[in-house]
From TrEMBL:
Protein name: Ribbon-helix-helix domain-containing protein
Domain Ribbon-helix-helix protein CopG: 6-43
Lineage of origin: Bacteria, Bacillati, Bacillota, Bacilli, Bacillales
Highest taxon above the source species: Bacteria
Matching InterPro entries: Arc_rbn_hlx_hlx (IPR013321), CopG (IPR002145), Ribbon_hlx_hlx (IPR010985)
Amino acid sequence: MGTEKKRLMISLTEEQNNELEKLAKEKGFSKSAIIVIALEEYKKGQKNA
């Protein structure tokens, strides 16, 4: 991953936002970090498909 970061705005349902906040609190990460981790895991899964 590069060091330059881009800001992104996304729209989530209330339920999705609640789940994201819950995961972030449980794991001790920011919501942004949870999304980045999810994207990296998705990419890994696509390579193995």
